[in-house]
Amino acid sequence: MAAGAGALAAAPGEVAQGVQELAEVVSARPVGAYTHLVLRAPEAARRARPGQFVACGTGDSGMLLRRSLSLHAADPEAGTLEVVVAAAGPGTRLLAAKRPGDTVSTTAPLGRPFPLPAPGTPAVVIGGGYGAAPLPWLAGQLVATGSRVVGIVGAASADRLLGTSAVDEATALDGVADAVVITTDDGSLGAPGRVTDALPEVLHELAELGEPVVYACGPMPMLRAVHTTTREALGDGASTWLAVEESMACGVGVCMTCVLPVAAVDDDGVTRTRMLRACTAGPVFDGDALRWDAIGAAEHLRGGALVPDDAVGAPKATGGH
Ligand SMILES: Cc1cc2nc3c(=O)[nH]c(=O)nc-3n(C[C@H](O)[C@H](O)[C@H](O)COP(=O)(O)OP(=O)(O)OC[C@H]3O[C@@H](n4cnc5c(N)ncnc54)[C@H](O)[C@@H]3O)c2cc1C
Ligand code: FES
Question: How far apart are alpha carbons 26 and 29 in whole angstroms?
C-alpha cells in the first residue's frame, strides 16, 4: 500500500471535489485474479480519502461512460492513485490491459469517504472479492488513531480473494490490521463459508474493548448480511458504514441511475426516505439508513432498488433505476 495512510481524516458530511486529470500508468501488475494499477494523478492524490472512487475513461472512443473503481490508496507525495481492476466486462478489460506509459482519463476523488470513529474505537473492515481494495488504506488510518482493527476478507473461491498476503503482500491487510480472517465459500482458502460467518466472533472479541464500528465494501447481498449480522451480534444502533457498488453510469450525480432509498431524520424530527444518488451521497452509507426492504426488490431491474411508497420527492409506483 502507498504511503499517505493516516495523513488525512475525513470530515463528517464532506463532499469530494473531483478533478479531471490525464493520468499516466506508472505500473501495472497482476494481483491474483485482478490487475493493480498505479496512476499518476497528483491533484486527486492530494485530495483523496479511503472510500472514495475514481471514474476512468477506457480509452475506447466508442465507450462514452467512465468506469468507477474504488481507490486502493493515494500517495500525495508521489502524486499517485492506486486501483485494483477486475476484468468483468469490455471497459474493465481495457483498463486491466493498460501498461506503464499508457494514459487513463480520470475524474477523482468522487463520492463521500468512510467516516472515522472516535480515536481508539475498535473496528472491523470487511471486503468481498475486489471489495477489499480500499480496506488496507482505511485500516491504516484507523490503526493510526489507536483503533484495534480486524480484517475479514472473503470470496467465492481462493482465486477471487484480495487483501490477504496469501494473494499479494503489497495489497494485503496483513501487517496493517491487527488480525486478518479469510473465508471462501468453497473452503479453498481460510475458513469455509461467508465473511458474515466469521463476523459474530470477531465482534464479540472486539466488544470487550468498546462498541466496535463495522466497515464493509462489496456486493449488495454481502452488505445486507453484514448489516443484519452486526445488529444481531451488537443490537440496534451498532455502527455500520457500507460502500455500495451500484451501477454508476456517470459517477458525478447527473444521470440518476445509481439512486438508492435512504432514510434520514429531518430538522423537524421526522424520519423521511429519499432516493439518493449513490455516486454523490455515497458510495459509503450508514447501514441503518439504507431502506433494505426496497433494495434488491426490483426483480425486473436485475435486483435494483424499488422506490418505497413513502419516499418523498420521487415518483411512486414500480419505478427504480
Ligand atoms: C463505487 C464503485 C466502486 C467500484 N470499485 C471497483 C473496483 O475497485 N474494481 C473493479 O474492478 N470494479 C469496481 N467497480 C465495478 C466496476 O465499476 C464495473 O465492473 C464496471 O463499470 C463495469 O464496466 P464494464 O465495461 O467492464 O462492464 P459492463 O457491465 O459492460 O458496464 C458498462 C458500463 O455500463 C454501466 N452500467 C451497466 N449496467 C448499468 C445499469 N443498470 N445502470 C447504469 N449503468 C450501468 C457500468 O457502470 C459501466 O459504466 C466499482 C463500482 C462502483 C460503483
Ligand atoms: S451515476 Fe449518474 S447520478 Fe450517480
Answer: 10
Is the separation of the CB atoms in 105 and 56 below 8 Å?
Answer: yes
Which pLDDT value is given to residue 310?
78
3-state helix, strand, coil in the chain (%, to 5): 20, 30, 50
Q: Which CATH number fits domain 19-110: 2.40.30.10, 3.40.50.720, 3.40.309.10, 2.30.30.50?
A: 2.40.30.10
The response to whether residue 242 sits with its C-beta less than 6 Å from ligand 1 reads no
> Which whole number is the average pLDDT over 191-217?
96
Mean pLDDT for all residues in the chain: 90
**Contact between 212 and 183 (Cβ < 8 Å):** no
Residues framing ligand 2 (Cβ under 6 A)? 248-251, 253-258, 277, 279
- How much is the pTM? 0.91
Half-sphere exposure of 152 (CA within 13 A, CB side): 26
* pLDDT at residue 11, as a whole number: 46
Render 42-107 in DSSP notation, one character per residue.
HHHHHH--TT-EEEE--S-TT--S-EEEE--EEETTTTEEEEEE---SHHHHHHHT--TT-EEEEE
Q: Which of 248, 256, 299 to mutate to test the pocket of ligand 1 (most atoms within 8 A of CB)?
A: 248
Residue 90 has pLDDT above 90, yes or no: yes
Give the pLDDT score at 28: 98
